[in-house]
Amino acid sequence: MASDGSISLNKFISDSGMCSRREADKLIRAGRVAINRMPTRPGNRVYPGDEVRVDGRPIKFKPAPLYIAFNKPVGIVCTSDDREKDNIIRYINHPERLFHVGRLDKPSEGLIFLTNDGDIVNKVLRAGNSHEKEYIVKVDKPISEKFLKNMQNGVRILNTITKKCKVDKISTNTFKIILTQGLNRQIRRMCTHLGYEVQKLKRIRIMHIALDKIPPGEWREFTKEEVDTLHDVLEKSTNDSAAKSYGKTKFKKEYKGRYNPKVKKKGIDNPKSKSLRKSKKSKNRR
C-alpha cells in the first residue's frame, strides 16, 4: 500500500478473494471493472473510500484473517448473544466481527481462541482431528490414585465413555489433564461422576498455543509462526481424516458381500434354511 493509502486495482480485486491478479487484469482489460462507476484500465489505483464494481456488482472485501488468544476470566460467557450482558464478544469489543472457537463455561477461565476465519472454527472443533487441550484443575478433596486411573481410562458421561487421556497429579487437590475431545462440561462431569467437585478449572494450552503470560481479561494476536503452524497442523489433520474416511469406504466396497454373517434371532427362521428344509421334506415324501 502506498503512503497515500492507495492500492493497485488488480491487487484490490485479488485481495478480496475474488480471483488472482492475473485474472483481475483480464477483467479490467475486458472493461468489466469500474471504480466509482467510472471505466478503468490496467494500472489504475484504488483509494480509501472508492467503490469497486465488477460486472456492476460491488466487491465485498474479505478482511485479512485474524487469530486471537484470549485469557477468559471467570464470569465471562462464551456466546455472541446480545441478550447476555457478559458475552465474550462484547467484552473484547474488537472492531472485527469475531467468532469464539469452542467454549469455556462461565465458572472456568483460561485460553480460548477467537477469529474472523469461519473455516478455521470448524476444523479446530472437529473431534476427529484430536487436537490437544490442556487444563489445570483443582478439586474439593485429596486426589487418589484410583481417581487418576479412572480419569485416564475414561469415564461414562453423556451416554458415552470419554476417550483415554493423560492425567498428572500436581498437588494434593490439583491435577493436570490433556483432552483430545470436547464434550459439554466434560471435566466437571467426569469429576462429579467419580465423587469429586471442581473448585477451579483453567485451560492453559490449545494445540501449540499456550496461555503463557497473558493476564486475565487480556488478549494477543497469534504470531506469524503460530498462524503458519496452525494452518499446517489443520491441513495435516484434515488430510488424515479424509484418508481414514476413504480407507473405510474402500474397505466396505471391496469386502461387501464377501462375509456378512447375520445373527439368527430366537424364534425367527432363516428364509434360505426354511426353503431348504421344505425341499428336503418333499424329497423324503417321494
Kindly describe this structure.
A hairpin with a 2-residue loop joins strand 11 (156-157) and strand 12. Strands 7, 8, 9, 10, 13, 14, 15, 16 and 17 form a 9-stranded mixed sheet that branches. A 4-stranded antiparallel sheet has the order 3-2-5-6. It has a two-stranded antiparallel ribbon with strand order 1-4. Helix 1 packs across helix 2 (21-29). The radius of gyration is 29 Å and the shape is elongated. With 286 residues, it is of the alpha+beta class. Mean pLDDT is 85; it is low at 254-269. The protein starts with 6 loop residues before the first strand and ends with a helix. The longest helix is centred in the last third of the chain and has 32 residues, at 224-255. It has 3 domains: 7-58, RNA-binding S4 domain (Structural Genomics Hypothetical 15.5 Kd Protein In mrcA-pckA Intergenic Region, Chain A), CATH 3.10.290.10; 64-129 and 213-222, Alpha-Beta Plaits (2-Layer Sandwich); 132-206, 2-Layer Sandwich (Alpha-Beta Plaits), CATH 3.30.70. Helices cover 33% and strands 23% of the residues.
